[in-house]
Amino acid sequence: MARGSAGRSALSRHLRVLGAFGPLTGDLTLSEIAAAAALPLSTAHRLVAELAEEGLLEPVGDRRYRPGLRLWELATRTPGAAGLRELARPWMGVVHARLRQHIQLGVLSGHDVLFIERLSAPDAVVNATLIGARIALPLSSSGLVLLAHAPEALLDEVAAGHWSRPTARAIADARELRARVADARRDGYAVLDGAIHEASRGIAVPVIDSTGRVHAALGAVVPIDETPVRPAIELLTVAAAGIARSLEATAGGAAARPGRPLRPLLATSRATLAYFEELGVDTVLELRAHDD
Amino acid sequence: MARGSAGRSALSRHLRVLGAFGPLTGDLTLSEIAAAAALPLSTAHRLVAELAEEGLLEPVGDRRYRPGLRLWELATRTPGAAGLRELARPWMGVVHARLRQHIQLGVLSGHDVLFIERLSAPDAVVNATLIGARIALPLSSSGLVLLAHAPEALLDEVAAGHWSRPTARAIADARELRARVADARRDGYAVLDGAIHEASRGIAVPVIDSTGRVHAALGAVVPIDETPVRPAIELLTVAAAGIARSLEATAGGAAARPGRPLRPLLATSRATLAYFEELGVDTVLELRAHDD
DNA sequence: GCGATCCTTCCATTCAACGGAAGGTCGGGT
DNA sequence: ACCCGACCTTCCGTTGAATGGAAGGATCGC
């Protein structure tokens, strides 16, 4: 590198540039990117050009950029996100059809829940969740569930840290957080009222496989005191078990085969399944139709 | 850099590593990655460690890696893929409900169609398409449609190049390709029989906005001579127009506002819409429920 | 026409990336 | 118990790719 050279690896600066695009960010100009990424303009200029060259950014009009196709294409190979999402959707659909409220799936990422999928309804309550966005663990019922099943060290870290409190009912301190997490651990679910918005109640259960590993939290956001909680928990629990089974069918199925494990295919027709087997693709599982 | 140093920018080597994971690839070990990316082992070792550090790869078990959450999270901000997909799904659902065959959405990427979304049915015909995978332009009806509306230079390039011919009915040469593309340009749709598999017929129409820009191709894969073609084309055309309108409502709507354009939100409840407006998020459009 | 804003190019400096080689670790075969 | 082969990890001297300040353009608004 050169000059005082600041940062860490080259990779981290490329990511700083991509990180300039947040969940609510629109197309950005070069200087907006430079500012958001805290990079010198000439450096940003070069990085943006490289990223655009590789298709990770794409030019829009003649002065703006947005994240590009290649990024999405690569992300498609993310079993922990894209894969889990695809596999969970049918189960989420079942819950959604009954509850007609927000149904969402979140995974643990750092000190946040990263939301991977959400089904909504026009008349559902307020819900700050966006697909691809994060909520601090203590602010969400999904977060409590994930925390309940994470290594103790994570709870210690989070409890020691700070979190915003959008409403007065949000969990206030480490003591309360630990109590709520203990509840979630004991009950196998979490209910959290008005933590982000006064009117909303979160209900979440873990997606937990037969080895005890927790892959995600499946949650609903419902109006407080309108939707009966008990039946919702039961619906969510059944769906979470279904998701866990689907996960094991793919991951386990693929890993169990000798030879190179291939990503199992989902959601395709029987005829297509036969086609891929003919092509010599080792592991192809048909789970269920994508959309039914 | 150092030593003979081979390649291009640092970015390109990181991408070579990520590129080792294909649409059908499972979790890979370090040496598999090194081999697939054609990188020296020690280099691959360092790159993989960096990528894992940043969450672009995640360790699985104790010797394998897979693409990580952060990659998916960043890809979430891709209006041309993730955004288009979300926005198109309701329209695709309408077509799917009628045809009960594969319905798919593809965008132009290099000399391929990159498929972004697909709805299937258990009894649908053979279909090689995978979400996140590519098909060469001349092999797919969606490809013909995209080629028909792309700059002439692209057609020249593709026609001059080579493509595989999985079946005897696949387009054979540049002459035939140009003729089929001309048809697609004239008709506003493309029908292609048995190009990838003997039993399957592709039907595709462009998603074309009011400025004439083509954003994607919307297609169906149906059994040859079973599904009436004309009504399918009409269904697809209506849906494509719907997608185009949704696109303009978001992109146009956001871009038209003064101040920083924000990514419009989709698929949320009315109450949530109000919530975001209150928070000062400039541009929030509610289009329709995510799942209905 | 003039200033402000944003983008592009240039280039001397220098340190982060490179990768061959050597040393571990692990497991399976005998 | 021992060896062997397959992987993975660490070390480190070399060097050219990345860096970013500065200067020069392009464009827009007033």
Automatic annotation (TrEMBL), chains A, B:
UniProt key word Transcription regulation: yes
Pfam families, alphabetized: HTH_IclR (PF09339), IclR_C (PF01614)
Q: Coiled-coil segments, which residues?
A: none
Ranges for domain IclR-ED? 70-253
Boundaries of every HTH iclR-type domain copy: 8-69
Gene3D superfamilies named in the record: 3.30.450.40, Winged helix-like DNA-binding domain superfamily/Winged helix DNA-binding domain
State the SMART domains in the record: HTH_ICLR
Recall the GO molecular function terms of this protein's record.
DNA binding; DNA-binding transcription factor activity
What are the alphabetically sorted keywords of the record? DNA-binding, Transcription, Transcription regulation
Which PANTHER family does the record cross-reference, listed alphabetically? HELIX-TURN-HELIX TRANSCRIPTIONAL REGULATOR, ICLR FAMILY, HTH-TYPE TRANSCRIPTIONAL REPRESSOR ALLR
> What protein is this chain from?
IclR family transcriptional regulator
- Give the organism, scientific name: Demequina lignilytica
